[in-house]
Amino acid sequence: MTIRWIKATTTDALAADDMIDVEIEGRHIAIYHVEGAFYATANICTHAFAILTDGFLDDYEIECPIHAGRFDVRSGKALCAPASQDLEVYPLRIEGTDILVGLG
């Protein structure tokens, strides 16, 4: 499968310990900036439709704003109930100040 790299945002758009919702080809994708690194996951909670970037980022964990399910932003792993299904994780790379998300 060929990965298409699409510009999502820039590194300047995200302060440390910040996150942003971007929409790419109809998909809500969350970009996180934690401990100097960037990560990308689906931005819709797998338990109930909620935009995760409306929730709370604590280190590497994003907490859903509706039912407080949590996910690891590095792996997408669901960490506690009511979330039980992992988030999709997207490959990400930095070119200059551009953050590119890989879609395949």
Automatic annotation (TrEMBL):
Signal peptide extent: none
Source superkingdom: Bacteria
UniProt cross-references to SUPFAM superfamilies, sorted A to Z: ISP domain
Family: Belongs to the bacterial ring-hydroxylating dioxygenase ferredoxin component family.
Molecular function terms from GO: 2 iron, 2 sulfur cluster binding; metal ion binding
Organism: Aliidongia dinghuensis
Protein name listed in UniProt: Ferredoxin
Keyword Transcription: no
Keywords, comma-separated and alphabetical: 2Fe-2S, Iron, Iron-sulfur, Metal-binding
CDD domains: Rieske_RO_ferredoxin
